[in-house]
Amino acid sequence: MSHIAVVGAGYVGLTTAACLADLGNEVCVIDIDEAKIRALRRHRLHFYEPGLQEVVKRNGMAGRLNFTTVYSEAVAGAGIAFIAVATPEGEGGEANLDHVRSAAASIAEHLTGPIVIVNKSTVPIGTGDFVSEVFQKHQPHFRVDVVSNPEFLREGSALHDFMKPDRVVIGANNEAAADQVAKLYEPLNAPILRYNLYTAEMVKYASNAFLAARISFINEISRICERVDADAKRVAEGMGLDKRIGPHFLEAGIGYGGSCFPKDVKALAAIAERFNYHPELLHAVMAINRDQRTLAVEKLRECLGTLRGQSIGLFGLAFKPNTDDMREAPSLEIAKLLLAKGAKVCGYDPAAGERAKALLPELDVRRDAYAVARDADAVVVVTEWNEFRQLDLAKLKRAMRRPVVVDGRNIYDPAQMRRLGFVYRGIGRN
Ligand SMILES: NC(=O)c1ccc[n+]([C@@H]2O[C@H](COP(=O)([O-])OP(=O)(O)OC[C@H]3O[C@@H](n4cnc5c(N)ncnc54)[C@H](O)[C@@H]3O)[C@@H](O)[C@H]2O)c1
């Protein structure tokens, strides 16, 4: 059993803390947001992540998982501290490390003995050195080793991804420190890859950039499919069964969003430019993704003529299904474009309605998909929640003023939609 501090009670920090506690460790989570910590002490989460609340509760009740806003409580006696704070887009596209710096400085000020600091946040190459320097400055007395341990979990399946990872990446320049972190992951029986610090930091950016590139690739193919009358969904299926290619991240649609891909691709491109390399492919990935965002609006205009005065409904608001995360959600951009063109916009999301409303008060958030379809001139499938696949489509059509569906995630069958009398537009399938 290790005594562990986890800094940051967000998607990554809380999942890490709850899972490490579930593996039998004693974990204390520290966050500067008092409201979040107050709620967590009552085993309530400030975000939606399937199954996480139960794990938090189970380990909280067993006394293995504690929450605090006081650094001295979290750090005292901890042999390992994970830093899992946000690293948002900063100036020039590079990651902003203010939260990382502040977390490291706060840990340093409250150290009572040697410690291993584990960077779980996605950080630019060299951040391990940067964190070491912060410790040198604030606490030169105790030995501090910095380890990189990038996280690959996906929101919506965070518990599964943490407990059954494809691999665990540990980067360190000190073997003993790497051993300590590797030991925490041994019960997961996953391959543990040990690299130096820079390589581990790079694995995370390269992985996210590659996944984003696959999405932009299939979106580019979908643009070509529309022109030559091929079906991008079938093309992806035909490609994906090739073992060298694989089926994942090959869904044409309105592009990637969320708290990771947009900022991480941009950050990697900025790092490359700083080191005098122009990353042609990364720039193309971003440009294609930007264009996909406006595609839904173009398709609506094609179907409706003008957008002014039209009622448009959005199915799904979160950046992807099974989360309430609205960071870089395509829904916000689409809604803003439509509002700017004089349309009225309403929407529904099984989990993110409140968050969406807080970010865009002009958005009329409704209680379900049928309420969104009521008197709508068109609906757009923005987020592919399963419940939208199960809708009674005939009922949906009856509710709408005009039966226009722009399926930004290709969840419906074009032939069936046309049979039902919809004017249907998918992505890359005419
Ligand atoms: N969300 C994901 O799916 C995901 C997946 C893999 C990696 N990551 C990376 O993990 C990191 C964290 O992402 P997230 O989505 O969990 O972020 P988040 O915004 O959900 O959580 C960050 C938390 O850190 C807290 N915090 C900020 N400064 C602090 C400080 N000085 N001391 C204590 N707490 C502080 C915030 O209050 C917040 O609760 C990012 O670098 C992100 O890129 C995220």
Layout of strands and helices, then pairs:
Elements: E1 3-7, H1 11-22, E2 26-30, H2 34-41, H3 52-61, E3 65-68, H4 71-75, E4 80-83, H5 98-109, E5 115-119, H6 127-138, E6 144-148, H7 158-163, E7 168-172, H8 175-185, E8 192-195, H9 197-228, H10 232-240, H11 261-274, H12 280-304, E9 311-315, H13 330-340, E10 344-348, H14 353-359, E11 364-365, H15 369-373, E12 378-381, H16 386-389, H17 393-399, E13 404-407, H18 414-419, E14 423-425
Parallel strand pairs: 1-2, 1-4, 2-3, 4-5, 5-6, 7-8, 9-10, 9-12, 10-11, 12-13, 13-14
Antiparallel strand pairs: 6-7
Helix pairs in contact: 1-3, 5-6, 9-11, 9-12, 11-12, 12-13
The structure holds nicotinamide-adenine-dinucleotide (NAD).
